[in-house]
Amino acid sequence: MVSSAWLIVAVLYHDTGEATASHKLSARLLFSYTMYEDIQLNNNTAIHNFEIFVDEHRAFIDYKERDGTYFLIHTEVPRELEGHGVAATLVEKVFKYLEENDFKMVPYCAYIKAYLKRHPEWERLT
After folding, report:
1. CA angle at 105 for the pair 62 and 59, rounded to the nearest 5°
2. In this structure, are 15 and 72 located in the same domain?
3. Could you tell me the strand order of the sheet in which 69-76 lies?
4. How confident is the model at residue 55, as a pLDDT?
5. End-to-end CA distance of the chain
6. Which residue, 27, 37, 60, 92, could crosslink 5 as a Cys pair with Cβ 3.0–4.6 Å?
7. Which residues 6+ apart lie within 8 Å of 51 measured at CB?
8. Are strands 49-54 and 42-44 parallel, antiparallel or unpaired?
């Protein structure tokens, strides 16, 4: 089965005669989101982590919670998964969880702050 991300690269290449670095990055990110879509987010309240498992590796966001507000402190992805869109997928899943449960957030993590700059639509959770 061919992923939609690679089909997008093929279409871009066909239409323009070349796939630019920007096109390749967009396709890679889309491929990552598609690839990790079925992975379940776990709110591990015992250790104050949102976590996902990819290929038996654990990626997580460390948090503190008070009165329905989550203070997002640190995002960590194992070296084996770096550069594959796992951190972005994890952040997206956490934001969706917070929104679906009417929680707010305060981002302290540098990665999450950078993610919010690229995706300002999620500022509604702050």
Report:
1. 30
2. no
3. 42-44, 49-54, 57-66, 69-76, 104-107
4. 87
5. 39
6. 27
7. 41, 42, 44, 58, 59, 60, 61
8. antiparallel
Residue type (1 letter), 116: L
pLDDT digits (tens, 9 = 90+) for 32-59: 445 678 899 999 999 999 999 998 999 9
The residues, ordered by sequence, that sit 6+ positions from 16 with a Cβ below 8 Å of its Cβ are: none
Same domain, residue pair 26 and 67: no
What pLDDT score does 37 carry?
80
Number of domains in the chain: 2
All residue ranges of the chain with pLDDT < 50 are 1-17, 20-33
Q: Are residues 76 and 105 in the same domain?
A: yes
39: buried, middle or exposed (CB in 10 Å: 19+, 13-18, 0-12)?
middle
DSSP per position, 64-111 = EEETTEEEEEEEE--GGGTTTTHHHHHHHHHHHHHHHTT-EEEE--HH
pTM attached to this predicted model? 0.74
Together in a domain, 103 and 56: yes
